Structure formats: structure tokens, C-alpha cells
Amino acid sequence: VTILIALFYGTGIIADDIDGKTLTYLVIRPLRRFLILLSKFAAYFVGTFALITPAHLLATLIIATDPKIKESLLFNFGMSLRYIGVMSLGLLAYGAIFTVFGVRFKHSVLWGLLVAFGWEKITLVVPGNIKKFSVIHYLLSIYPRHSLPTRPIQTFLGDSPASPWLAIVMIFLITACFLSLSIWMFQRREYTFEA
To answer: Would you tell me which of 47, 51, 111, 168 could form a disulfide with 101, CB atoms 3.0–4.6 Å apart?
Structure first.
């Protein structure tokens, strides 16, 4: 769900203003373009985080109060916070990637779908080090594994999963690189609107 939310909201950061022909009103303001993009990205992150967090906490509460669950409610709440942390990192990285598509392409959602369900899924099943060129590899490296069968996750990660700190650094690096690329493209691109 995280990648889909990032896809639809991330591509819409600039693409919705282009489609609605409201981008002109933003770029004629006495603001630098990079500030416009960064503030819209910050709003995207806060909005999607606010969308995912309550839903996840509610699902945790429903599951944790089941009498068959052995762990305490406090333990499940702590695990839930770790899951929310991983989802937040996914929102950052995927949002930055999909922002590039929103700035560059007319049909940005289609390009985003190719990445989300093409590249990210293919790298999970292709053997070798190609996994290290996907966000999902680093997210799975820091994903809490309590009460989960480790075999499917280990199959996806391969023989050399990234350490949790390296995975977090790589996610922030991916976010910074793609945000920088989207800012660079947004500052140099001229948007024309037909009447």
C-alpha cells in the first residue's frame, strides 16, 4: 500500500498543477522554484504519513487485542512503531522517485507503475546484486521480522543483505539524489499551457 500511496501522491506533486494549469500561479510568485517543490514534497510526506499511521495503528489495535495473540499490547504497539518507521522511509524514497516522474513526464503515473510493479518486483526475483539497485531491498533489510517466516524475506534479500544502518543511509541517499534531480529538472523546464 505504501508504494501505491507514494505513486499517486508523489507523481501528483507537480503533475496535478500542470494538468490543472495552476502551475503558472505558483511559478510567477516571488519564490524560488526549489522552495515550491520542497514545500510540496514536505506536504506530500506529512499528508501520506497522516494517512498511513492511523490506519496502521488501528489495525495493530484490532489484531493485538485478539486473545490468541501471545505478546502484550505494549509490545505490539512498539513493533507497530517500527513498521511505521519503515513505511515512512518508503514514503520518502518512493515519493522522491515518483516526483521526478511527475516533473518530467506527461503520463507520470504510467512511468511510476513501471517502476513500482516492474523494476521493484523484478529485482526481488532476479538473482545477483541487482537487488541493491532497488528501494525494496533496503526496506526489507530494516523490516522488523518478529513472528514472520524468515525464509521468504531471506530469499528476497539474497546472501548479502544490507546492514540496517547502511540500508537507512541508502534510503536517505536515494531520497536526496532523486529530490535533487527533480529540483534540477523543475528549475530548468519551461511549462507551456494551451488556452
So the answer is: 111
Q: Which residues fall within 8 angstroms of residue 77, CB to CB, at 6 or more apart? A: 57, 60, 64
Number of residues written out for the chain: 195
Q: What is the pLDDT confidence band of residue 45, given thresholds at 50, 70 and 90?
A: very high
What is the distance between the alpha carbons of residues 81 and 18, in angstroms, rounded to a whole number? 36
Cα-Cα end-to-end distance for the chain: 37
CA distances from 83 to 65, 86, 88, 113 (A): 18, 5, 9, 24
The pLDDT tens digits for 77-119 are 888 899 999 999 999 999 999 999 988 888 888 999 999 888 8
pTM of the model: 0.84
